[in-house]
Amino acid sequence: MKLRMGLCSLLLLASSVQAAELLTSSESAGLLKRMAVSARILNYSGVYLYHHTDVMETFRLVHAYDAGGEQERRESLDGIPREFVRNNDQITCYLPNVRPFMLDRRAANKFFPGVIPDQILDVLNNYSFKRLGVERVAGYECQSVLLEPKDKLRNPHQLCLETNTGLLLKSTMFGPERGDLLEHFVFTQLDIGGAIDKRALKSVLASKALPLEPQPLPKALPAPLGGPSQFVMANLPSGFRLVKEALSKLPGKADPVQHFLYSDGMATVSVFVEPASSNPVALPLSRSNKTVNFYSRQADGWRVTALGEVPLRTVQLFTQSFSVR
Asked: Residue 10 burial (CB < 10 Å; 0-12/13-18/19+)?
């Protein structure tokens, strides 16, 4: 019996180890588009596992698409009850005894399995696509593809797309040398297609949440810190481009800070600029939560902090790229 089990294991290993096939730009772009479209227009429901650092969570997900667009509800099955209810690009988060709050529109493109790149061309410029073997996830066959960075400034990703529909069934982000598993999403139970009961898309926690506060009239934002031409961003890490600039109110900060958001198509890096204080600069931590690295420095009376799901060297380069005229 042990011999048979050993032979079976060897056969499975041999079948999974195949020479990686480099995809063309056209094939890579088609793969990303197919993945994005399937996550949006398919009906599906199931349970998926989210693993990052020392935390493991499971979520139940129901997704529907009709003439009105996308509707979705996902609920946490571990720890504090949480719900994320989506109506197209609008996502509302519900918790017991807490006022509901809206998530940024960009979050709609980052929720598994709808991991839609910010710009497909950016992804193609920064990553090589390699076709690996066929795997089996939640009872479905899926094609495994490695997104290998073209430099050391970003992390590799491995995706597994259901062979018939292109729906993303598994997504893994590794450390720069593919030695550490930094973040992992995978369906453990899944049904693709068929009708979705609209009752399954309704929030359960909405009745337990605090009522929404009346929304105040919008106020004019103050001018950017230091003026529009105060900061100079030179020699930024290659492959990243600015996708958002705004004043952001952060927890523990009395005044808003200048926020610059950069993306390479897959990974994002946030850079925060604020007046320097007498408090010591936080030491760079490369393993603060293992997935996110951050680095902070002071220069010319300003504090520049960068953080993102990228190697430590990348956030260091971002802080060194900001200066004052």
From this structure: exposed
* DSSP per position, 154-178: S--EEEEEETTT--EEEEEEE-TTS
pLDDT at 223 over 80: no
Give the DSSP letter string of 247-269.
EE--TT-SS-EEEEEEESSS-EE
- Comparing CA positions, the residue from 235, 233, 237 lying closest to residue 273 is 233
10-27, pLDDT tens digit by residue? 344 344 445 689 999 999
First to last CA, the chain: 74
- Tens digit of pLDDT for each residue in 239-256? 999 988 888 777 777 778
Contact 271, 322 (CB under 8 A): yes
The residues, any chain, with a CB within 8 Å of residue 275's CB and separated by 6 or more, are 225, 301, 302, 303
